Amino acid sequence: LLCVCIILQVELIRRDYVANNGWETFLSYEDPEQDILVGLLRLRKCSSDTFKLELKGGVSVVRELHVYGSVVPVNARDPSKFQHQGFGMMLMEEAERIALEEHASHKISVISGVGTRNYYRKLGYELDGPYMSKTFHILSATC
């Protein structure tokens, strides 16, 4: 019996760019040495000419979130696979930080299919029209 172990040096990579009159951020977890893409997230700061009511007035939207590799059942863990190891949650946490701190958004929304809504509910999102959304409650300090 021969066991071949692959040790990954996964790091968060960020790429920012302008697309369709809006600002987008592409986040990914990658192992650049071995040219492996673990997962990705596309975040957009909605422009003022957004026509979707749910995305108007200072909203950032996650247009895409994927963690690659073999499919692992939701309640299962397989340390040799990327799914259910926390990469998606870490990408969402970074997207929320960017939306709040850099975009000054009051809300972040996710384009979500019916099958992934419970995942986003666990992260504090609620159904908002066709989206799952989280409103940021900012506490202002008074001196």
Automatic annotation (TrEMBL):
Superkingdom, taxonomy of origin:
Eukaryota
Q: Where are the transmembrane segments?
A: none
Q: Name one GO molecular function term.
A: acyltransferase activity, transferring groups other than amino-acyl groups
Asked if RNA-binding is a keyword of the record, the answer is no
Instruction: Name the GO terms of the biological process aspect.
Output: tRNA wobble base 5-methoxycarbonylmethyl-2-thiouridinylation
Domain N-acetyltransferase: start-end pairs: 1-143
Q: Gene Ontology terms, cellular component aspect?
A: cytoplasm; elongator holoenzyme complex; nucleus
* Keywords for the protein's UniProt record, in alphabetical order: 4Fe-4S, Iron, Iron-sulfur, Metal-binding, S-adenosyl-L-methionine
Annotated Pfam families: Acetyltransf_1
Its recorded name reads Elongator complex protein 3
Which species?
Geodia barretti (Barrett's horny sponge)
